[in-house]
Amino acid sequence: MAAVTWSGGTEHWTNKGDDVRLFLWHKKAKDGVPHKGTVFFVHGSSMASQPTFDLHVPGRPYSSAMDWFTDQGYDTWTMDNEGYGRSSKHRDHNSDISCGADDLAAGTEYVTRVTGVKQFLMYGISSGALKAALFAQRHPDRVAKLALDAFVWTGEGAHTLEQRRKKLPEFLAKNRRPADRAFVHSIFNRDHPGTADDATVEAFADAILTLDDSLPTGTYVDMCSKLPLVDPEKIDVPTIILRGEYDGIAAFDDLIEFFKRLPNTNKQFSVMKGISHASFQQKNYMMVYHILHSFFTLPDPVYTGG
Fold first, then answer.
1. Which PANTHER family does the annotation name (predicted)?
2. At what angle do helices 127-138 and 97-115 cross, to 10 degrees?
């Protein structure tokens, strides 16, 4: 395995409670470009923040989503949830969705304290989308816009979760599960092989395994046995739902029902052609960046029907 290091950003640390340390990674907006806001990226169940959002692959421009967004004028932040990457792993805890939303509360409080930014353009993927949605439900005042990628609401029709439930007793029995290269490969092979190139998958695996050889079980337990975890009628912020064409977790009808119930009519639903689950690591990743950029820069409505 090629060891991976990260550069070009600044590491930060904050506390959650008395004994949990949370790692944050910051990349500043490019100088000379009009500032467009602050993006807070939220990772999923099977990898920490930097492998997901600051990946570098030779010959693949802007594999780092953070680099692309900083070049467009965004300040970018991401964070390792408790149990992942550089953040604390010592507690007897499985780092579930609610724990992740608590991490976001602590992380955004820290960013507000050091930068003065009070509202974030928040993007979450997979269980990170659930964490971001629950955070927005709890703290709508801190979310300017919400992007939910590879999201799941009730789980109905999600064939990947149907298969994963067969291992639920195993996930319930322990707080962590092993992570290896074969597991990373399975993320890209289970729905529709070919949506990601081999070099990107291997670089992604290197980055994940540099930081973790095991991962918390909490998000898997939640997604297999406790859905729904969020109430769309209580998420009253501008929201976009992104759904990969081949995603086996983000079942289309389930997401449409969630979308219909969102009370803020400043909302969008985007189906991403040729993409399965890990959208930033797909061959069509630039399309995802542009969809997000368009949503984040969409002007506020002048007429609201009042």
1. MONOACYLGLYCEROL LIPASE
2. 60
Cβ atoms of 79 and 103 closer than 8 Å:
yes
Please, which residues have CB within 8 angstroms of residue 305's CB and are 6 or more apart in sequence?
none
Axis crossing angle, helix 198-211 with helix 181-189, rounded to the nearest 10: 140
List pLDDT tens digits, range 213-232: 999 999 999 999 999 999 99
Q: For the CA atoms of the chain, what is the radius of gyration? A: 18
- Give CA 281 to chain center in angstroms: 13
At residue 54, what are phi and psi to the nearest 5 degrees?
A: -135, 40
Residue 304: which residues within 8 A CB-CB, separation 6 or more?
A: none
What architecture is the 10-297 domain classified under in CATH? Answer: 3-Layer(aba) Sandwich (3.40)
Enumerate the domain spans of the chain.
10-297
Please give the pLDDT value at position 3.
77
pTM of the model: 0.97
Q: Can you tell me the distance from the alpha carbon of 81 to that of 222, in angstroms, rounded to the nearest whole number?
A: 16
SS3 state at 153: coil
- Distance separating alpha carbons of residues 294 and 158, to the nearest angstrom: 28
Phi, psi dihedral angles at 277 (to 5 degrees): -100, -50
Dig out the tokens for 46 from the structure. 């099977």
Token pair recorded at residue 85: 């990457």
Name the percent of the chain lying above pLDDT 90. 98
DSSP-based three-state secondary structure for 216:
strand
Half-sphere CA count of 71, side-chain side, radius 13 A: 11
The answer to whether residue 182 scores a pLDDT higher than 90 is: yes
For residues 162-173, give the mean pLDDT. Answer: 97
Cα separation, 134 vs 143, in Å, equals: 11
As to burial, measured by CB atoms within 10 angstroms (0-12 exposed, 13-18 middle, 19+ buried), residue 185 is middle
- Whole-number pLDDT of residue 305: 87
